Design the sequence.
């Protein structure tokens, strides 16, 4: 018995302060937030002797107000941070602001407020909102990417990349939104339109700065296999984005011209089926072969359009090097200059796009791959794109296509007409933005010296404040003489600054490193003591939305690898574990004449404006435009942060979508009220516990408590199943209430076990609902702070479900006995009895008329015709 000792608290006499008899979150939440802040209990120190845990949530854009998606994201992170802290880890849990970006600039255009003012005011407001949620952030490490001390390092990294040839400038086609007058990333173009303003996006050629992420393509792909703590879905998305293709490059001579077309194909096994060749409109050869400028211009305007637009026959023929066949050369919009070689061999029989093109221009379609060698089709309804056997392919005929690819590549290399080639879909990262509110690119253009990087000692290149925001023309920086005009650092003659600013994805590609260095008001500096970086990094748990599954994570991985190569860090991947949380959704309400409605605009299922019946039932992601939103401020005011946190963790497992429901929130609020009332009622019972009362190991509350500790811990450890963990806590409270209400007299053992149960209940709930936990913890006489108390452990023996012997009868005759756990429902007891092999055998085909369950004792199965 002695061996259990350490699982029980020492019993001491204690003072119990007064507790208001009603749960009032408006009193206790600000009270504890203030105390936590005053005592700096979330401040983290680099401490090499302690095991660390870095818990990070994706930092928000300071758009003005937090939304429920943020609340969910941060509640998840906060539980993990607090849980790990209670488990003895030195936890780094920082927060900051992804503060550069378009909305600030648009606000400046619309309302005339300076982007800096707008941004800093939003930060202040949102920080206050986050504080009201009781999140355990170490605010001394707070950062905002728009601060010169921060973006200075963007510029520094840019210079380092430039030195290594990883930052370069080139003219390229970009997606251009004529109304926003800015370059858009591919994923900001939705169905050919601007993601923000919906105008038609056009292609425009501009000089741009690029980061050479393709230099790391292979490593970015290969290292994905080491990311065991990432969701499979994200790994797949990254793999597809990098898009590695194996194939061959093959030279086609242009008939009568001393020039080759180099094509890239992933299907060299179809070389004998090539009936024409296509060039991208902006391929250098297109410029040469198409002499009518207007035509080329038109072809370029279709560029990248996924639909097949008119192609153009150049009048030239190319010679297929494997069989000497002359095939026409076309220019086609669907061939991209940025991929492969910008030229393709078209095999209409085995590529649907080529097939459609061939049909349109009446070009031959020749079958060279068949699924079945003995049944060769004469005509095709559509392209046959699968694997098969080669026909009409010279010495390679008869080979299976996969083997043929290998053989043909060898053959091409031997003959010197082609070679093996690996291509990536991944493009270099265009970082230039023709915008004001971003990091100035630290480059100077000098008429004599050309492109000159700003010397490191002159960093940061500060964003000038006094610029005009008109919303027309190019970047506001072009208008700032004071910014634009400078001296060349090399020859000292008059020179001009680069006016493009950096993509804000640059800011977020290394912010997780900055937090590590920002201890105790230290200035951000990547040139001095970097020990905190190697201590805290990599991030142990990263949490954020799936919308960042590709770019943000890929860019951060790229930056990490570059910094490793710069010798700043000594690891290759920034995030060990990744949790992508689901969306917060809510039912939409729609009136036939008033469109989307807020819940407050609906009464008795009717629109309050016109009385029409409201259409409901569609649950969608919360969005302002559909009015299916709830405001975190209102919720915190009405129910308190603990309720909101608990609800957003209880309503769904973290990676699944969550449906917001006011009934659900009410339910959680009632649960916290019950918790409050229960502790309040039992306070004297707990208080009157005599010192040195020994525990009784058979007390049901002791067993229940150990069982619950185990259950909640296992649920948290197992992929953060907070929802079932919370359900376990609710059942725990129910059972405690049941037990105590059935008591007529209270023994010392009851007191002992009850105190043990209540203390553990509070400990277990503290990461989820920290304010009420802290308040009740002190109310039953414990010392501040529950947040610094270790996470409870359980005893396996005591946590085991107790079992009993169930007698199974058939028609009143004892037939078998089995052991089953206590607490099963009657239905489950029936099921267990019926699945017992001996019973199954005895019953075999007879009909079961009834199964009677006598609780905790026996089951009688009644059979008959
Ligand atoms: C001949 C062929 C025959 C092809 C066939 C496919 C099927 P992934 O897998 O994406 O790498 N292609 C090559 N470069 C292109 C470009 N710049 N723009 C548009 N299409 C291009 O696809 C590679 C295939 O896409 C290549 O293989 C080429 O068409 C086309 F039965 O070559 B294929
Ligand atoms: Zn736009």
Sequence:
């Amino acid at each position: 018995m002695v061996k259990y000792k350490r699982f029980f608290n020492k019993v001491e006499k204690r003072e119990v302060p007064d507790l208001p008899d009603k749960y009032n979150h408006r009193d206790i939440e600000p009270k504890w937030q203030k105390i936590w802040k005053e005592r700096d209990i979330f401040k983290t120190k680099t401490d090499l002797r302690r095991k660390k845990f870095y818990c990070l949530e994706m930092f928000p854009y300071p758009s003005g107000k937090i939304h429920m998606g943020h609340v969910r994201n941060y509640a998840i992170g906060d539980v993990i941070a607090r849980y790990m802290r209670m488990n003895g880890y030195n936890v780094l849990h920082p927060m900051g602001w992804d503060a550069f970006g378009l909305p600030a600039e648009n606000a400046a255009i619309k309302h005339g407020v300076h982007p800096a003012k707008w941004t800093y005011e939003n930060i202040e407001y949102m920080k206050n909102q986050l504080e009201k949620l009781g999140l355990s952030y170490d605010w001394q490490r707070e950062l905002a990417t728009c601060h010169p001390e921060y973006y200075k390092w963007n510029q520094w990294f840019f210079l380092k990349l430039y030195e290594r040839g990883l930052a370069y400038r080139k003219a390229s086609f970009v997606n251009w939104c004529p109304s926003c007058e800015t370059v858009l990333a591919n994923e900001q173009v939705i169905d050919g339109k601007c993601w923000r303003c919906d105008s038609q996006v056009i292609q425009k050629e501009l000089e741009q700065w690029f980061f050479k992420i393709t230099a790391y393509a292979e490593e970015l792909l290969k290292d994905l296999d080491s990311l065991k703590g990432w969701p499979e879905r994200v790994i797949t998305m990254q793999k597809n984005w990098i898009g590695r293709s194996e194939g061959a490059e093959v030279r086609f001579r242009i008939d009568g011209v001393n020039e080759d077309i180099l094509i890239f194909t992933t299907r060299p096994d179809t070389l004998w089926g090539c009936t024409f060749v296509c060039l991208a409109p902006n391929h250098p050869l297109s410029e040469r072969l198409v002499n009518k400028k207007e035509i080329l211009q038109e072809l370029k305007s279709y560029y990248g359009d996924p639909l097949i637009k008119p192609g153009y026959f150049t009048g030239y023929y190319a010679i297929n090097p494997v069989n000497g066949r002359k095939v026409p050369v076309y220019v086609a919009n669907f061939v991209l200059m940025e991929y492969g070689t910008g030229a393709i061999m078209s095999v209409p029989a085995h590529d649907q796009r080529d097939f459609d093109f061939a049909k349109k221009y009446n070009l031959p379609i020749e079958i060279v791959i068949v699924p079945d060698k003995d049944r060769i089709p004469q005509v095709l309804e559509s392209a046959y794109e699968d694997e098969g056997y080669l026909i009409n392919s010279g010495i390679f005929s008869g080979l299976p296509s996969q083997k043929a690819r290998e053989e043909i590549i060898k053959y091409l290399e031997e003959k010197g007409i082609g070679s093996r080639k690996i291509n990536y879909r991944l493009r270099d990262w265009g970082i230039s933005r023709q915008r004001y509110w971003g990091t100035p690119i630290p480059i100077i253009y000098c008429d004599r010296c050309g492109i000159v990087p700003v010397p490191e000692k002159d960093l940061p290149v500060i964003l000038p404040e006094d610029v005009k925001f008109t919303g027309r023309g190019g970047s506001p920086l072009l208008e700032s003489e004071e910014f634009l005009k400078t001296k060349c650092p090399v020859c000292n003659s008059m020179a001009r600054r680069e006016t493009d600013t950096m993509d804000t994805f640059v800011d977020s590609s290394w912010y997780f490193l900055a937090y590590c260095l920002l201890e105790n008001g230290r200035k951000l500096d990547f040139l001095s003591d970097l020990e905190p970086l190697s201590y805290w990094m990599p991030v142990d748990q990263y949490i954020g939305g799936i919308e960042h599954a590709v770019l943000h994570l890929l860019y951060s991985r790229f930056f990490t690898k570059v910094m490793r190569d710069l010798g700043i860090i000594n690891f290759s991947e920034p995030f060990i574990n990744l949790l992508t949380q689901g969306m917060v959704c809510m039912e939409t309400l729609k009136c036939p004449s008033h469109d989307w409605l807020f819940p407050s605009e609906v009464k008795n299922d009717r629109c309050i404006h016109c009385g029409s019946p409201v259409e409901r039932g569609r649950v969608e992601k919360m969005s302002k435009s559909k009015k299916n939103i709830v405001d975190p401020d209102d919720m915190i005011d009405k129910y308190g942060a603990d309720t909101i946190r608990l609800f957003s963790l209880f309503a769904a497992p973290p990676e699944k979508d969550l449906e917001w429901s006011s009934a659900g929130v009410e339910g959680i609020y009632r649960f916290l009220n019950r918790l409050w009332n229960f502790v309040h009622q039992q306070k004297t019972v707990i208080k009157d516990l005599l010192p040195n009362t020994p525990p009784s190991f058979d007390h049901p509350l002791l067993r229940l408590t150990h069982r619950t500790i185990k259950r909640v811990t296992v649920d948290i450890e197992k992929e953060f199943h907070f929802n079932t963990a919370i359900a376990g806590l609710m059942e725990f409270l129910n059972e405690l209430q049941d037990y105590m209400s059935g008591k007529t007299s209270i023994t010392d053992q009851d007191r002992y076990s009850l105190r043990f149960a209540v203390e553990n209940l509070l400990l277990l709930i503290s990461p989820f609902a920290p304010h009420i936990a802290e308040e009740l913890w002190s109310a039953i006489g414990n010392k501040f702070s529950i947040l610094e108390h270790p996470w409870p452990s359980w005893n396996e023996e005591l946590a085991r479900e107790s079992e009993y012997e169930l007698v199974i009868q058939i028609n009143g005759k004892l037939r078998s006995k089995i052991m089953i756990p206590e607490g099963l429902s009657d239905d489950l007891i029936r099921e267990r009895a019926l699945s017992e092999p001996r019973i199954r055998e005895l019953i075999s085909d007879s009909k079961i008329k009834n199964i009677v369950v006598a609780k905790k004792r026996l089951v009688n199965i009644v059979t008959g015709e």
